[in-house]
Amino acid sequence: MTFNSVNIKSILIGVFGFLIFGAEIAHAQQSKKISPNLFGLFFEDINYAADGGLYAEMVQNRSFEYSPSDTPDWHSLTSWNYVTQVFSYGTLNIETTNPIHPNNPHYAVLNIEHVGKPVTGPQSDIPQNKGTPGLGVKNTGYDTMIIKAGETYDFSMFARQISEEPISIVVSLQDTDGNILAEKNLTINSKDWKRYTVTLTASESSNSASILVLGTSKGTLALDVVSLFPQKTFKNRKNGLRSDLAQLLADMKPAFIRFPGGCLAHGDGIGNMYRWKNTVGPIEQRLEQKNLWGYHQTMGLGYFEYFQFCEDIGAKPVPVLPAAVSCQNSGGTWRVGGIGQQALPMEAMQDYIQEVLDLIEWANGPATSKWGAVRAAAGHPEPFNLEFIGVGNEDKMTSEFEERFNMIAKAVKAKHPEIQLIGTSGPFSDGEDFEKGWEIANENNVSLVDEHYYKQPEWFLSNLNRYDSYDRKQAGVYLGEYASWGNKLKNAIAEAAYMTTLERNADIVKMASYAPLFAKKGHTQWKTDMIFFDNKKFALTPNYYVQKMFSTNYGDTYYKNIISIKKDTTLSASCIKDSETGDIILKMVNTGTEQKRMKVNLSKFKNLIENAEKIVLEGNAEAENTLDNPNHIMPIESNFKVDKSFDYLAPPMSLTVIRIKTATENIKIN
Ligand code: AHR
Predict the structure, then answer these.
(1) SS3 88
(2) For the CA of 293, the nearest atom of ligand 1
(3) 504: domain range?
(4) Nearest atom within ligand 1 for CA of residue 481
(5) Same domain for 90 and 192?
(6) 483 Cα nearest atom in ligand 1
């Protein structure tokens, strides 16, 4: 730092401010470069976030793979109804001989023995006489299907003709009264599994539609992977994502996305670990499995789709692989009688390590490499530029974990020193697993350690100095999961206060992501979530707005001592510059119940443009947004005139972001 007239001026202003303000927080005048990746997202298929959520597939149990191991009363025909129309009869069975792929063993067999004829005359009005004559299966989707008039839907299914004659099929979208919203005909004419497709354009809208696959000629056929997608997915991708929900994430401009979990990544027992290879390739060949949050994973949203989505929104992919041990809660340790953490046997470790290395080749290798070719076959010949891999998720720090983590870390570092490894430190902010996790990670010289904690808002407010004293020489921090327990404004504002301290410490806290991300109405296992949704709409929590206000107003340099606040635990603030735009960004948080003054001194910066943008999230501490009242609490944008120095009156329970444009290069001191 050079000592010049500006320094002297700044110091004088600081001293003057100190005299007026009394005991202010004093820092040496200085700036520091901070992580470019601080604010990202964590996506886990919990609360129906993927199947029935972000993944736009509308048919539930499309491959007839549901089973009681997902949830006790589920089976191959969950979400399907057997339908006969106009006195037709036959049978519906689930079979497993000669499936499309061994990973996808179950399929439905329709035997259409008789196709009825409509009666005429006085009895023609009875329900059995309605509709096209035939026999089939109807899917009611994930809590029914939303169909919009004028929109087109891609229907596909795999089928195999078992009887001699080709079989006629009518595919229709229907509302609850059986009114046809769209309809197309198909002929099943192959004795081998074949994919059949039609597009359906809806004539009417319905909030409770279903899809019917009706055999209308005699014969027997096998059906599998019966699928319906809106054509309007995010970026119109096939096998894509629900556009409204995906756009909410894109709007946050996250630096990265961590996926696929969470506990989902290390799984309920070793047989349930999330194995990335089972989730790439054609959807009919992916290995579905139970979701440890009490439902089912089709893997339709698999590694390819995660990476593609990251690329589509400019976020870095951060896959988390199990450290070859399962969740310590396997078998329900939180209930009585769980089996606890399970480890892959040592003889399986070489293959497992290869699986980790293969992921790097799949993501970054040339299209001519073995695994790069799998990526290319899916439509992405260019590498995905993977930079990070997480190994483990808040695992119990047993000797089994340590041994396996060390083996994986050693192999990845040896073969791919360019990849930044992320270790794990248990489920809590401190304690035995936390200490041991850090120790193991540091011994392995990993780049980052993943910390997780869910706490009361008061905890966040009394830990605003947590990272100030972290050793800058050890691994960086990835705060991979955190949230204050609740989605009220007071929770979000406590998180905002904490996030200013993440910015202050972004030389050591390199990445952070709130958790969990999505929660579907009626299917929520975890109560603190960022976005609530149903099939049609969503509610953005105050926590979402806080995250977005930070992630869309981030930069690369942190400045100390720009905002002076009274020594007051209810207040917190930070100042960041974005070198790309030259913008100076101030964040000011008041977690108290009264308006509070903050003094802003911008004399360090040149060429400030007086007209700045201000965004304020404020309100009643208990305020929250719900699906029925989604806009109760929202940030308000306005213009704000800035001066070299000014006082800002932070409203009670508020986060304010002020974004100040500059005319040219503006920094006098570094
Ligand atoms: O975010 C919900 C769960 O919380 C995650 O799956 C797990 O990592 C943590 O315990």
Answers:
(1) coil
(2) 6
(3) 41-46+250-312+320-554
(4) 1
(5) yes
(6) 1
Question: What is the average per-residue pLDDT within 384-401?
Answer: 97
Task: Report CA(48)–ligand 1 centroid distance (Å).
Answer: 14
Cα of 426 from ligand 1 centre, angstroms: 11
- Which is more confidently placed, 572 or 24? 572
Q: Count CA within 13 A, CB hemisphere, residue 15.
A: 6
Element (H, E) at 599: strand 596-601
Work out the percent of the chain whose per-residue pLDDT is above 90: 90
Q: Is residue 626 part of a domain?
A: no
Based on the structure, what is the number of domains in the chain?
A: 2
| Ligand 1 interacting residues, C-beta cut-off 6 A | 44, 46, 261-263, 393-394, 427, 452, 481, 515-516, 526
Residue nearest to atom 4 of ligand 1 (CA): 262
User: What's the mean pLDDT when you consider all of the chain?
Assistant: 94
Handedness of CA 494, 495, 499, 501 (dihedral sign): positive
User: Can you read off the two tokens belonging to residue 146?
Assistant: 């939303």
Q: Alpha helix (H) ranges present in 223-316?
A: 243-251, 263-266, 303-313
Same domain? 268 vs 416: yes
Ligand 1 pocket: which of 266, 452, 482, 531 to mutate (most atoms <8 Å of CB)?
452
Q: Ligand 1: which residue has its CA nearest to atom 2?
A: 516
Token pair in block for residue 56: 């736009």
Contact call for residues 507 and 32 (beta carbons, < 8 A): yes
The per-residue pLDDT for range 153-170, each reduced to its tens digit, is: 999 999 999 999 999 999
Q: Whose CA is nearest to atom 1 of ligand 1?
A: 516
Same domain assignment for residues 127 and 274: no
Residue-level pLDDT at 667 = 52
Task: Give the number of other CB atoms < 10 A from CB of residue 187.
Answer: 13
The total number of residues written for the chain in this structure: 670
Place of tokens 């229709």: 172
Spacing, Cα 167 to ligand 1 middle (Å): 48
Ligand 1 centroid, distance to 515 Cα (angstroms): 8
Positions marked catalytic:
394
In a domain, 490, yes or no: yes
Q: Which of 287-301, 402-416, 656-670 has the lowest mean pLDDT?
A: 656-670
**pLDDT tens digits along 250-287:** 999 999 999 999 999 999 999 999 999 999 999 999 99
Q: Which atom of ligand 1 is nearest to the CA of 264?
A: 6
Residue 615 sits at the vertex; the CA angle it makes with 610 and 621, to the nearest 5 degrees, is 140
